[in-house]
Amino acid sequence: MKTLNRRDFGVAVAAAILLPATHARADDMEVHIDNFVFQPAELTVKVGTTVTWTNRDDIPHTVVSAGKFRSKPLDTDDKFSFTFTNAGDYKYFCSLHPHMTGMIKVE
Amino acid sequence: MSGHDHGEDGVSRRKVLECMTWAGTGVLWTITGGVPRSLSIIDSAQAATAAAPGMTFLQISDSHVGFDKPANPNALGTLEEAVAKINAMPTKPSFMIHTGDITHLSKAAEFDNADRIISQSKLDVHYVPGEHDFLDEDVKFYRERYGRGTKGAGWYSFDAGGVHFIGLVNVVDLKAGGLGNLGAEQLAWLEDDLRGKSKSTPIVLFAHIPLWTVYPEWGWGTEDGGRALEYVKGFGSVTVLNGHIHQVMQKVEGNVTFHTARSTAFPQPAPGTAPSPGPMKVEDARLRAMLGIASVNFKQNEQRLAIIDTPLQG
After folding, report:
1. Residue B38 has pLDDT above 50, yes or no
2. Beta-strand pair B249-253/B27-32
3. How open is the CA angle B68-B72-B73, to the nearest 5 degrees?
4. Which residue in chain B has the smallest CA separation from A62?
């Protein structure tokens, strides 16, 4: 039934987010996953910012903030985006490799 | 190397590294009266096992079916080679355990392919899940296939050849900043499962992530693994078999032997020797020396248990 595989879906989502390049806000931010580390591990953004995580490892990871957001498993080069509409500290981790942790501070 | 004695107080880091080096070419471990001895290298070890009565079972781990990255573009192929190795063994093992990460991404086709290859061994297989086996949206594929008759996320026990086997799950409900996790419900079940067992019953605990702390910086350990080990403390012979770290590592503490098996898919670096624990790309010619299977032999009434790690090649 599903003809869209996970990677294509990831690309499609990314495209949907990135396509209106002309009015892409300067404050949209990226976090990369490299070598089982969220980079940057801590990021401070303004309310309304969309943060996009990209997994660049050969192993799947997730991005999970308890009660706030939870990505599907991200295979290599898959992306996950979340728009922060409320101020606060959002601690998150990889539910598969819980020693991987990060934080988004929303002001 | 014959008669090398590791003493009773565990082994020094140097000794562990020595053992690991030997394990790379195959080592026979025996335990007599709680004192482990490394007897010899692979050929004579295999001969000893072939000649030995008692029960032999196999451990395979981390087959990661579906993995196709540079560290091994054909993980299904190397699983097939591992099964061929099993089928060529001089003595047919009693059964097999698989210590998780059967698949890479928990896709139905990956589970199907894994089963198609592993079933060619014609052995009963007792599985525990790895974190890679619970990635499907409804977290149902593993349970549908292997969860029948198990408790909670898939833990269970069974008896074979006079040994009590306990399969544990330490890959669910992981906590931020933590390691592998058994959880209160499973620990309570374990305590209950062991209640009333004779202390002379040999115990084999198996789970995906090492139950002891191998390298917390890479998440290689189980947060509440020590609780599980408390419950088996009084038993005369305890063997803990794990996967997850894709390399052979062994530690002995008193009557407890900890052992991790190679992957059949791709190697991972030794602790701290690389920027991350991710798949390690080695020269093609070296890959099969770093993948493999383990066989475990138990002789009744001798409190003796031997683990032989056999690489796919070399």
Report:
1. no
2. unpaired
3. 40
4. B135
The contacts of residue B88 (CB under 8 Å, 6+ apart) are none
Q: According to DSSP H, which parts of chain B are helical? A: 13-25, 42-51, 75-87, 108-118, 141-146, 184-194, 225-232, 284-287
Which among A7, A99, A103 is the top mutation candidate for probing chain B, defined by the most B β-carbons within 10 Å of its own β-carbon?
A99
For the entire predicted model, the pTM comes to 0.83
Beta strand B163-167 pairing with B203-206: parallel
pLDDT of residue B238: 95
Q: How many CB atoms lie within 10 A of CB A36?
A: 20
| Residues of chain A positioned with their CB less than 8 A from the CB of B182 | none
Question: By mean pLDDT, which of B135-144, B263-272, B282-291, B297-306 is the weakest?
Answer: B297-306
Q: Chain A residue closest to B135 (CA)?
A: A73
Which one of A57, A73, A99 has the shortest CB-CB distance to B177?
A: A99
**How many residue pairs bridge chain A and chain B with CB atoms within 8 Å of each other?**
58
Q: How many Å lie between the alpha carbon of B69 and the closest alpha carbon of chain A?
A: 7
Contact call for A92 and B71, based on CB within 8 A: no
Residue A26 has pLDDT above 60, yes or no: no
Task: Note the pLDDT of residue A5.
Answer: 53
What pLDDT does residue B54 have? 80
Write down the residue that tokens 């295999």 correspond to.
B46
Cβ atoms of A96 and A62 within 8 Å: the answer is yes
* Lookup result for tokens 């004779």: B198
Closest to B121 (Cα-Cα) out of B74, B85, B75: B85
Residues 10-29 of A with CB under 8 A from B: none
pLDDT average, residue stretch B284-304: 86
Position B75 scores a pLDDT of: 98
pLDDT of residue A85: 96
Contact status of A97 with chain B (Cβ, < 8 Å)? yes
Distance from the first to the final alpha carbon of chain A: 43
CA distance A83 to chain B (A): 21
In this prediction, residue B206 carries a pLDDT of 98
